[in-house]
UniProtKB/TrEMBL annotation, chain A:
Gene3D superfamilies in alphabetical order: Dihydroorotate dehydrogenase, electron transfer subunit, Nucleotide-binding domain of ferredoxin-NADP reductase (FNR) module, Translation factors
Protein name: Dihydroorotate dehydrogenase electron transfer subunit
Binding, [2Fe-2S] cluster: 248, 253, 256, 273
Keywords assigned: 2Fe-2S, Electron transport, FAD, Flavoprotein, Iron, Iron-sulfur, Metal-binding, Transport
FAD-binding FR-type domain ranges (all copies): 23-126
Organism of derivation: Knoellia remsis
Biological process annotations from GO: pyrimidine nucleotide biosynthetic process
Cofactor note: Binds 1 FAD per subunit. Binds 1 [2Fe-2S] cluster per subunit.
TrEMBL record, chain B:
Record note on cofactor: Binds 1 FMN per subunit.
Name used for this protein in its record: Dihydroorotate dehydrogenase
Upper taxonomic lineage: Bacteria, Bacillati, Actinomycetota, Actinomycetes, Micrococcales
Gene of this entry: pyrD
Organism: Knoellia remsis
GO molecular function, one term: dihydroorotate dehydrogenase activity
Similarity annotation: Belongs to the dihydroorotate dehydrogenase family. Type 1 subfamily.
Active site: 139 (nucleophile)
Protein location: Cytoplasm
């Protein structure tokens, strides 16, 4: 086994895994953690990841330390990366403390170790022409959109952002959005910030005003479905980054599947970690999702016959 | 591993074949190789164990398919897979191309389907990279529990005998058993007498989680298979009981593959001491995608620490070390 390569910060990379196929397992080191509304913003030294990562990809973090009883990795979309800094390349993630694993992550302090596998999954596909783009984030689903906005604007694409959440404290990055985008619209369910209502209430006006042929979205499934619908009503394509429960994040556990049509229109249960997390919204079989449960459409390849599997 | 003395890790898998080390992936915890090959060279493993494949493509179940549990997880995948023809055309040739030794896990809805799957496999072009076949007669994720062949000695024996007829004699065949039975020794006995070269123990245990926020079953499939470090004592017990029965001469002694909750080399050694000749690393791979490769090095260190130069010297050793006051 090749010995790990030390870095200036003490974080190590398994050289064995070095960019074998664009993904690394890294012994990372937290260098900053701060609150952002209802969320925590984590900056991790993770050498090598920044050079490989693109907007829309995600990181899978082990939680609880090496002897923990919480074995499953927690996956987060990458908020941003920085290839070189005082401590070496860094990775930024936004985390909501929902259960014991994410709680553990939000209790990390500067210089604590954290095991990172990244970058994972398919990135947002970028337009070849400098067309206007709408970026829609639900809650902390907005995390990857600021970096995406930067990349799009570098390519000459005007960027309009729509950020929605239940309440003001559950919005993420409103200030950052004003810097990253040409226009920002905010919605909250309770009206505590911006328009009262959902992102789908304001989206039609944004499509009409910008004439955007593409919308990028990240957030809860219901929001992604409505962004897909509104985009289609305006002749636009939605590229959505899904949030599915994953055990491994690397494509081996088969738990994060969802029904998606391929180019030929054939529905398969595909892994959102390797074939996603970004999908064309109009290829996702949204009708299979009901209240946190997703069924297998009867016309999916290998769907259960009568009596089930 | 720097500093540790060299240990001979090679082990017999049966039918006269030898593996360079006893560590394998576990079926359903490693897909079919490409994903983990991004993290380590899968040809370094004693064998790569593929995800159970059936005759036809299969979507598996809806979601949620997974729930984290104390030191483990519950899964309800439902044997999602491409079908044996796509497997032998795409997955097996790739595994051969990277030099992997492959233990192919197969299943069927009927005993006849098991045999059909084995025949397609045995006739395939890349079959020479196959070091054995693992017959999954114990997947808990089937709609009808009556279809869990490994819950009944006669059903187990029928599947094993039919698959045996389809495989060349020099290809080892392992029956994968469930611990969810009253007497695992009687199932092991039936499988060996029907022609199994060896036994893999254990498959997941049937379990269930209820979401206490929604007060409904957490998994789409309602019940699922429990795996991870929490079930390791069950694996150790099953290996122990079957090894003890073989030592007592109840049936022929065959090689055992231990699986259940192995996360470290020390865990692997525990299964070996109970009677396993080989060990699979399953759920730990979800926590650490390099776990199967890491366990090889850790096992070598653990074996050396016991002052032996050959891992086979520790197989079943706990049976000889009991203190009888």
């Amino acid at each position: 086994m090749t010995p790990p390569t030390p870095t200036t910060s003490g974080a190590t990379v398994s050289a064995q895994t070095s960019a074998r196929d664009g993904v690394l397992r890294v012994d990372g080191e937290v260098i900053a953690i701060r609150r952002a509304g209802a969320y925590h913003h984590l900056t991790i030294v993770a050498p090598g990841v920044a050079e490989l990562a693109r907007p829309g990809q995600f990181a899978a973090l082990a939680v609880g330390g090496p002897t923990t009883g919480n074995l499953l990795r927690r996956s987060f979309s990458i908020h941003k990366v920085s290839p070189s800094g005082t401590y070496g390349g860094t990775l930024d993630l936004v985390i909501a403390a929902k259960g014991p694993g994410t709680q553990w992550l939000t209790e990390l302090r500067a210089h604590d170790a954290v095991d990172v596998v990244a970058p994972l999954g398919r990135a947002f596909p970028l337009p070849t022409e400098p067309v206007p783009c709408i970026l829609v984030g639900g809650g902390y689903g907005s995390a990857p959109l600021f970096w995406l906005a930067e990349v799009l604007r570098e390519r000459g694409c005007p960027v309009e952002m729509v950020l929605g959440a239940g309440s003001e404290d559950r919005l993420f990055g409103v200030v950052e959005a004003r810097r990253a985008a040409d226009g920002v619209t905010v919605t909250t369910d309770d009206g505590s910030a911006g328009h009262r209502g959902w992102v789908s209430d304001v989206l039609p006006e944004v499509f009409r005003r910008t004439g955007a042929p593409v919308a990028y979205a990240c957030g809860p499934m219901g929001m992604l479905q409505s962004v897909t619908r509104v985009a289609a009503e305006h002749g636009a394509v939605a590229q959505v980054a899904v949030e599915e429960a994953m055990a491994c994040g690397v494509g081996v556990c088969m738990t994060c599947v969802m029904p998606v049509r391929d180019k030929a229109g054939v529905t398969k249960m595909v892994r959102s970690c390797v074939e996603g997390p970004v999908f064309r919204g109009d290829r996702v079989r949204w009708e299979a999702f009901h209240d946190g449960v997703c069924g297998v459409p009867a016309d999916a390849v290998g769907a259960p016959q009568a009596g089930g599997h | 591993m720097a500093g540790s003395p060299r240990v001979d890790l090679s082990v017999p898998i049966g039918a006269g074949r030898v593996l360079p080390n006893p560590v394998m992936t576990a079926s359903g915890c490693a897909a079919n190789g490409r994903e983990l090959h991004r993290f380590f060279d899968v040809s370094q493993l004693g064998a790569f164990v593929t995800k159970t494949v059936m005759m036809e493509p299969r979507s598996g179940r809806g979601t949620p398919r997974m729930a984290e549990t104390a030191s483990g997880m519950l899964n309800s995948i439902g044997l999602q897979g491409p079908g044996i023809r796509a497997f032998v055309e795409q997955d097996l040739p790739w595994l051969k191309s990277v030099g992997a030794r492959v233990l192919v896990s197969i299943a069927g809805n009927t005993a006849g389907e098991f045999a059909d799957v084995a025949r397609v496999l045995a006739d395939s072009d890349a079959f020479d990279c196959v070091v054995g076949v693992e017959v999954n007669i114990s997947c808990p994720n089937v709609a009808n529990r009556g279809l869990v062949f490994a819950c009944d000695p006669l059903s187990s024996a029928k599947v094993i005998a039919l698959v045996r007829e389809q495989l060349p004699r020099d290809v080892p065949m392992f029956a994968k058993l469930t611990p969810d039975v009253t007497d695992i020794v009687s199932i092991a006995d039936a499988a060996v007498k029907a022609g199994a070269t060896g036994l893999t123990m254990i498959n997941t245990l049937l379990g269930m989680v209820i979401d206490t926020d929604t007060l409904r079953p957490h998994l789409g499939g309602i019940t699922g298979g429990l795996s991870g470090p929490s079930i390791r004592p069950v694996a150790v017990r099953a290996l122990w009981q079957v090894t003890q029965a073989m030592r007592a001469g109840r049936f022929q002694t065959v090689p055992l593959i231990g699986v259940g909750g192995v996360r470290t080399g020390r865990d692997a050694l525990e299964l070996i001491a109970a009677g396993a000749t080989m060990v699979q690393v399953g759920t730990a791979t979800f926590n650490d995608p390099t776990a199967p490769q890491r366990v090889i090095g850790e096992l070598e260190t653990a074996v050396a620490a016991h002052g032996v130069d050959c891992v086979t010297g520790l197989v079943g050793i706990a049976h000889d070390r009991m203190v009888i006051p």
